[in-house]
Amino acid sequence: METSAFHAPTTPDAMTDEKTTAAAWFHTLRDEIVAAFESLEDRQTEGPSANLPAGRFEVSETRRRSDDGSDAGGGLMSVMRGGRVFEKVGVNVSTVFGKLGERAQHAMAARKGIPGMAGDPQFWASGISLVAHMQNPHVPAVHMNTRMFWTPHAWWFGGGSDLNPCIEYAEDTAHFHEVQKTHLDPHGTAHYPRLKAWADEYFFIPHRGRARGVGGIFMDDHCTGDWQTDMALTRDIGRAFLPAFVPLVDRRRDMAWGDAERDTQLIHRGLYAEYNLVYDRGTKFGLETGHDANAVLMSLPPLAKWV
Question: Are 237 and 229 contacting, i.e. CB atoms less than 8 angstroms apart?
Fold first, then answer.
């Protein structure tokens, strides 16, 4: 996909306020999502898995160290396992910084070879990443990520959200996409079709010849040169997530399911795992920059099956 033009800050210490604002927003969004997901657990009082204790997130700090042992940032890893609604869900937020090695530079963005990066590979990155694998096979798995990346030579935003049902319902797919469009259209009606097409391309699995799910929206290297405008778009991508996803959970979480549906779910999770381990750029970047491996691999399902 075509990307927006990079904008180069004028000094190595530029955009301090902008970075602080972005990191604070990602934390706020994290808090809203964690509260909404625990509320879903409390509301699951009938149907399958209602006999289980309501799930709660286990929260732990993640820390990253530079090669010389100095602080290089970190974040919060919040994971819920074995809940009534969520079999496993992780909501991670982090702010990291330091210097990028050559392989990390290659993994960090869709566009490579940023001028000046080889001579001064400083970076700063902050974002939120979420993956939910559900108890009920009728409830779709989902992924969401938004982030800001800064170097002395360029800055940009990226992310989006996509739906990954193992049993697709056309009305669920339509709702998820319509909410995304509603949140993007105030920023320009060209955004939704462009970001939808980008998601369709990005979440395609070449060795299987199929998409990972039913799509959503995705962008990378997004920089118009107007930070406020680009941050507003990124906020609304995040704000779209709960109204796009929670109604689908409420619609499907009480539906009966058996061994056949579970088998379908586990096979689909194998597809999800293949994509994240082989193609996902965020996974590669996290591992290349030395971030906590448990946090990076949080996206993997608790159980999967290959046949």
Answer: no
pLDDT digits (tens, 9 = 90+) for 144-187: 999 999 988 889 999 999 999 999 999 999 999 999 999 999 99
Chain centroid offset of residue 301 CA: 14
Which residue stretches of the chain are H helix? Answer: 16-43, 102-107, 170-184, 191-202, 227-239, 241-252, 259-278, 281-288, 293-296
Q: Is the pLDDT of residue 8 over 60?
A: no
Judge contact between 117 and 150, C-beta under 8 A.
Answer: no
Is 106 in the active site? no
211, 203 contact by CB (below 8 A) = yes
Q: Spot the catalytic one: 138, 143, 222, 268.
A: 143
Q: How far is CA 160 from CA 13, 62, 75, in A?
A: 28, 23, 20
